[in-house]
Amino acid sequence: MSTDATWFAIPPPSVHLDARSYFTFYTPIQLVYFVSAVLVTIPNTYALRLSLFPVFAYLLWRTTAHLDMSNGNPLNEGNNLGLLTLVATVIMRLTTWTFQQKHFLRTSKYKDANERTLSQILYDGADLCCNFRGVGWDWSDHQVFINPQPHEVEEKQGAAKRKEFIRENIISYFTCSIFFEIALYILFKYPLEEPDEPTWSFFLLRSVHAFLYPVFTYGNLGGTYNLYALIGVCICGQSIEEWPPFYNKPWLSTSLTEFWGKRWHQAFRYTFSKVGGRPLSFITGRAGLVVGTFFISGVFHDLGYWGMHRGRGICCYTTPYFILNGVGCIVEATYKGITGKRVGGWIGRTWTVSWLVGCALATMSPFCMTDLMRSFSDALATQPFYLTYLLVKKLISTA
């Protein structure tokens, strides 16, 4: 893709981040998110949520169009990626909550939303803002069920489970850090530079990059989640049931449906299906549900990248990638309908990896990916194994 992309180009944002702009542009996003979350937990607020939607949408667009969190420094464009990712998250969840006719209930705490105090209502709103999979809520696809146990047994088992949870998350955090650091190092060490004429070495490097990007994402999101889980349980006193594993061993996937539906993270599954899948399903049924869900997933990712260069326009490549993966899932469903068998085994695993990497090669823009990775240029300096390496290197040099 060339550098002169002009899709959805807008005048470059001119408001730099300072104390004043933080409260006039950034804080409204947080308030919109929190107020919307609180309202959807309160019965009989449907009309109020509908009436506030245009106001909230305007505030989000105002920030999108004007706030520049890089303060004009190209090396800090990653801050704008984070800003637009946040805005995209809020607008999608705001849309879901606005058109939700029945209020949400935190079933792990209450049987009736009207029995809550004001502080409990506010706490539920805060939980909903951070709770993407609906753990403990009536809208979750993954309800947590606990078999009742005698109090003494439950107490002992709870303590043992808590220790095991802490141990597993510590191990997982450092494992994810290794994946993240290795992928990041290789991606920076061997960047993609689009040649005038395609070569086999360039194709091989693109293939390596296409494989490493999900590894990079796995390490980044997985490690961050493990850290938050440890903080939530060890410091904030939350139960371990509130922090189910973020991933489910995606490398064991034997089909695209299994990969995206069960093993890759499900953080946005509910939101994507509500905003993109459900509307399209009214037109084309099950196929529309699948493609619409993947389409919105791609738009969500591309909006974050668009945030880095709003004046230039969107560098659209993840939307086609996710749509193709939706098509792949439909192909699997068609295969099952014809043969009566699910895609699986080693053939299924080969198919899954080939489709994931092949779609990345077909849609991935070397220019856009290099541009994206630039926002992570300082990330290695904060990683545990890289810091350990620098410390050991310094100790050896001064010995």
TrEMBL record:
Membrane-crossing segments per the record: 31-61, 81-99, 170-188, 200-221
GO molecular function: O-acyltransferase activity
Family: Belongs to the wax synthase family.
GO cellular component, one term: membrane
Subcellular location: Membrane
Name of the protein this chain belongs to: Wax synthase domain-containing protein
Domain Wax synthase residues, every copy: 243-311
Top-rank lineage group of the source organism: Eukaryota
Pathway(s) this gene product operates in, as recorded in its UniProt entry: Secondary metabolite biosynthesis
UniProt-listed GO biological process terms: lipid metabolic process
Topological relation to the membrane, as annotated: Multi-pass membrane protein
Keywords, ordered alphabetically: Membrane, Transferase, Transmembrane, Transmembrane helix
